[in-house]
Known about the structure:
Elements: H1 54-60, E1 75-78, H2 79-85, E2 91-92, H3 94-99, E3 110-113, E4 123-126, E5 128-129, H4 131-139, E6 143-146
Parallel strand pairs: 1-3, 2-4, 3-5, 4-6
Amino acid sequence: MTLTLHNLKKFKGSTKKKKIIGRGNASGHGSYSTQGQKGQKARSGVGGLKLLGMRKALLSTPKFKGQKIRYPKMAVVNIEDLEKEFESGATIDATALLSKRIISHTDTGVKILGNGKLTKKFSVTARAFSESAKVAIIKAGGKIVIKNR
Length: 149
């Protein structure tokens, strides 16, 4: 006997018998037809997964407030930190700040802010300065160098 399409047979156990529901006690799923007792899901016209539809999906997804920042943040240093850590006449740049552990990274640049008082004279190189920091450094006799990347 040759093997052809019409005499192919499925392996034993490869298919399951379909569960027939709602056909009385003789079906093996009688009385409540696997629906449990009473309740909304036991009624006709209510699908089990339809209850968990679009509303459930909307409620379970996280909501993000505001907008995502589209650019990386610069490392921030206040002039009071410069006053504490450096001697008068020092040249301050990203590597000097990194070596004193005032900042943790230099890949996005450094911004100098004007919080605190400055009495020492510095030459400061950074990517950005606040207006108050510029005024304070120049007033103390220092120099500002803006470095782009």
